[in-house]
C-alpha cells in the first residue's frame, strides 16, 4: 500500500496544467467497441481507471496502440461478449461497455460493477433502457446479461438524470432500428463529448447537453479521430487548492463554462478568478468566506468536488453547510478531515463545517478518489507533514499529481 507524505505550503504561485477528462475518456474507450474501423483518440490521461478500461476492451477484442498521449484502437471482431470480473470489480464505469457490446453483438455479460464506495449506486436505469430497446436482461452468478436479436428504438424516461445510464443507453441505441428518445437525460459535458465522438463515428444524435436526447439508429459506425475534453473535476480541484492559500495560480487547459457553479462559489468565498482564454487564474489573500453548497446534477455544483470544497470550507471564516443530493453516502472524508482538526458534523445528507484557522497534520486515509483529493488539499494547509494512506484511490483520477505539485514547489513524496 503506497502513501503520500505531504508538507504544508504558505503561498502558491505558478502554473498547473489540466489533463484530459477521466469521465470523458472512459465511455469513449467503450464506444470504440462499436466499430470495426480504427478510432484515434488524443489527450488520453495516464490514469489507473484508463488502464482498467483498456484491459477490458482488449479482453473483448480491441487492439490498442499507444503513442505518447494518443491511442489507436481497432476492434476487428468481438471475441468475447463478457467483461472480466477482475477489472470490472475495480471500477464502476466498466459498466459502460454493456451498451456497446449489446449494440454490436446482441449480447453483453458484465459482472455487477465496483468502484468508489459512495452509496448504493444501482444500475436499474441502465437496465430499464436496455429493456426498453428490446433486450432481455437477466442476473445470475454475479453477472448482468443483456441479450437481443435486434434493438428497436424507444422512448425512455430516466427517473434521475444518471450520467452512466444516459451514456449506456445512448451507445446501445446508436445502431437500433428507428428513433430512441431519452427524457430527463444527464446534461454533463462528458455526455456531450461522447455524443460528439459517436456522431463522428456516424451516429445520429441530437440534443445532448439538454434533457432530451434523440438518437436515430444507423446501420453501422465507422472509425474517427477525437481529442478528450479537459477534466473539469481536476481543474476544479486545482482552483480550490489555489483558494486555500495566499495564491496567484494559473490553472491551464480548462473550459471555464464547465466550471460555472464552482467559480461562482469560489467568488462567493471571496476568491478572485480571472479568465485568460483557456486558462483560469485563481488569486487569493488567504481569507475565505463561509458558503453553503448543494450538490446537483450538471449544471449544478458537481458532487465530485464536494469533498475538495469541504477541505476549503474547513478554513473559512464562519459556518458553512454542504447538502449532498446526488449520492446517499458521500461523506467518508469527514472523519478523516476531523482527524486533522476540522470541525464537521453530519446530519443525514447535510454537513455543517465550522471554520478554523489551521488544520493539523495527521495520519489519514483516502477512502475514495475525491475524498483522497480533499485530503491532499487539507495536507497542504496543515501545520506539519501529513501522511495519506491508500493513495491508490487518488491514482484512479489524477494524472501525474506529484509532478504537477512539485512544479509548484510543493514537497510531496510517495512511499
Ligand atoms: C458519474 C461519474 C461520477 C460522478 C457521477 C455524478 C463517471 C465515470 N463517473 O458516475 O464521477 O460522481 O456521474 O455526477 O463518469 N442511479 C440510480 N440508478 C441507476 C444509475 C444511477 O439510481 O441506474 C443513481 C445513483 O445511485 C446516484 C445517482 O443516480 O445516486 C447518480 O449516479 P450517476 O449519475 O449514474 O453516476 P455515475 O454514472 O455512476
Helix proportion:
25-40%
- Widest sheet, order of strands: 21-22-1-23
Oligomer: single chain
Radius of gyration: 21 Å
- Compute the separation of the termini in Å: 9 Å
List low-confidence stretches. Answer: none
**Which kinds of small molecule does this entry bind, naming each only once?**
uridine-diphosphate-N-acetylglucosamine
User: Helical segment tally?
Assistant: 14
Find the count of extended strands (DSSP E, 2+ residues): 23
Mean pLDDT: 96
What proportion strand? 25-35%
Shape: elongated
- Structural class by secondary-structure content: alpha+beta
Largest β-sheet summary: 4 strands, mixed
Quick tags:
415 residues, binds uridine-diphosphate-N-acetylglucosamine, single chain, four-stranded mixed beta sheet, alpha+beta, 23 strands, elongated
Description of the molecule:
By secondary structure, the chain is an alpha+beta fold. 30% of the residues lie in helices and 26% in strands. The protein is built from 14 helices and 23 strands. It has a 4-stranded mixed sheet. A 4-stranded mixed sheet has the order 2-14-16-15. Helix 12 (369-380) links the parallel strand 21 and strand 22 (386-389). 52% of the residues are buried. The chain binds uridine-diphosphate-N-acetylglucosamine (UD1).
Amino acid at each position: 500500500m503506497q502513501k503520500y507524505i505531504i508538507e504544508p505550503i504558505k503561498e502558491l504561485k505558478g502554473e498547473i496544467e489540466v489533463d484530459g477528462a477521466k469521465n470523458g475518456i472512459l465511455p469513449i474507450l467503450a464506444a470504440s467497441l462499436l466499430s470495426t474501423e480504427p478510432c484515434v483518440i488524443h489527450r488520453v490521461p495516464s490514469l489507473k481507471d484508463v488502464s482498467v478500461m483498456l484491459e477490458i476492451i482488449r479482453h473483448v477484442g480491441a487492439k490498442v496502440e499507444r503513442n505518447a498521449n494518443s491511442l489507436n484502437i481497432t476492434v476487428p471482431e468481438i471475441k468475447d461478449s463478457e467483461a472480466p470480473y477482475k477489472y470490472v470489480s475495480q471500477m464502476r464505469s466498466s459498466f459502460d461497455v454493456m451498451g456497446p457490446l449489446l449494440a454490436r453483438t446482441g449480447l453483453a455479460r458484465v459482472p455487477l460493477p465496483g468502484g468508489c464506495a459512495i452509496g448504493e449506486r444501482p444500475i436499474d436505469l441502465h437496465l430499464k433502457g436496455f429493456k426498453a430497446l428490446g433486450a432481455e436482461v437477466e442476473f445470475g452468478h454475479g453477472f448482468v446479461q443483456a441479450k437481443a436479436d435486434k434493438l428497436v428504438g424507444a422512448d425512455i424516461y430516466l427517473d434521475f438524470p444518471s450520467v452512466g445510464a444516459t451514456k449506456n443507453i445512448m451507445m446501445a441505441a446508436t445502431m437500433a432500428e428507428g428513433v430512441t428518445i431519452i427524457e430527463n437525460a444527464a446534461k454533463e459535458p462528458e455526455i456531450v463529448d461522447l455524443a460528439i465522438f459517436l456522431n463522428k463515428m456516424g451516429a445520429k444524435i441530437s440534443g445532448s447537453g439538454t434533457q432530451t436526447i434523440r438518437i436515430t439508429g444507423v446501420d453501422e459506425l465507422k472509425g474517427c479521430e477525437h481529442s478528450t475534453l479537459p477534466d473539469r473535476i481536476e481543474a476544479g480541484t486545482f482552483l480550490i487548492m489555489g483558494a486555500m492559500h495566499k495564491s496567484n495560480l494559473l490553472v491551464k487547459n480548462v473550459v471555464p463554462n464547465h466550471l460555472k457553479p464552482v467559480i461562482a462559489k469560489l467568488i462567493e468565498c471571496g476568491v478572485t478568478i480571472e479568465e485568460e482564454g483557456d486558462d483560469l487564474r485563481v488569486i487569493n489573500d488567504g481569507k475565505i468566506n463561509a458558503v453553503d453548497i448543494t450538490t446537483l446534477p450538471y449544471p449544478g455544483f458537481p458532487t465530485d468536488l464536494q469533498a475538495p470544497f469541504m477541505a476549503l470550507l474547513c478554513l473559512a471564516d464562519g459556518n458553512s453547510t454542504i447538502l449532498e443530493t446526488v449520492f446517499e453516502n458521500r461523506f467518508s472524508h469527514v472523519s478523516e478531515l476531523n482527524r486533522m482538526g476540522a470541525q464537521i458534523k453530519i446530519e443525514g445528507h447535510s454537513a455543517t463545517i465550522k471554520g478554523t484557522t489551521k488544520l493539523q497534520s495527521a495520519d489519514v486515509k483516502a477512502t475514495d478518489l475525491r475524498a483522497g483529493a480533499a485530503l491532499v488539499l487539507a495536507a497542504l494547509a496543515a501545520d506539519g507533514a501529513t501522511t495519506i494512506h491508500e493513495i491508490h484511490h487518488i491514482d484512479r483520477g489524477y494524472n501525474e499529481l506529484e509532478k504537477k505539485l512539485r512544479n509548484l514547489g510543493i514537497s510531496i513524496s510517495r512511499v
